[in-house]
């Protein structure tokens, strides 16, 4: 049996309420697997706990109770093992959230992770004659920015929204991860560019064998690329299953409400 890329078991993440007393159960008893080489869409309205669940899977947030395992192993708690885990499991945020440093060139942005994880030395130790420039070029090319050298010295403000999103994806790919969690990766993009970025995610799964969890409030996106869909409401997972089952035959009232709110053009046939 292949281990899941990531698993959450009875996960709870509780915060003290930002205003007033009491607590917020941001994640409230979630059991969920990200299978290897699958694309899982995590959907739900704003505030349903998607980001908190993702951050906990990435080891950026501590669970109040419950467990996270990665490829069958418990999440490391600190030090070198955590750094290695962070490399294997990359987060791709959306660019308007300030994910790209406006003062860094594309090259610098993509090279950051390569330096942090000392990848050139690692490759060289394996007898591979690669340079940092080779690794940055490879990551940009894999993210669809070709020829890569053309983008090296560009600043984020010189790029289109789609290109900036590709730079963020290249930064993640540069450290050769097994899992990518993408948080609203296309929310700010035009429809045609959105399609291109989604096609890129599909290609990364097919060609690099990545496992991807895409966090979104957009069921149209889930329909377009996800193998499975998990629906969150108020910290709980209310429905999870194959995309066609969940979106064509929703079992839960909340999923039906999310579907009813979809604009008509998003009801497309795969
Ligand atoms: N650090 C924190 N302290 C207190 N409450 C928090 C914290 N982080 C998140 N929350 C609360 O937890 C709940 C879930 O938030 P979360 O950001 O995970 O939801 P989300 O589904 O990702 O929403 P969005 O789509 O708007 O990002 C919300 O009620 C939020 O206000």
TrEMBL record:
Annotated keywords: ATP-binding, Nucleotide-binding, Transport
Top-level taxon in the UniProt lineage: Bacteria
Keyword Nucleotide-binding on entry: yes
Record domain ABC transporter: where: 6-259
Pfam families: ABC_tran
InterPro entries for the chain: AAA+_ATPase, ABC_transp_ATP-bind, ABC_transporter-like_ATP-bd, ABC_transporter-like_CS, P-loop_NTPase
Record family assignment: Belongs to the ABC transporter superfamily.
Name the record gives this protein: ABC transporter domain-containing protein
UniProt source species: Leucobacter iarius
Lineage: Bacteria, Bacillati, Actinomycetota, Actinomycetes, Micrococcales
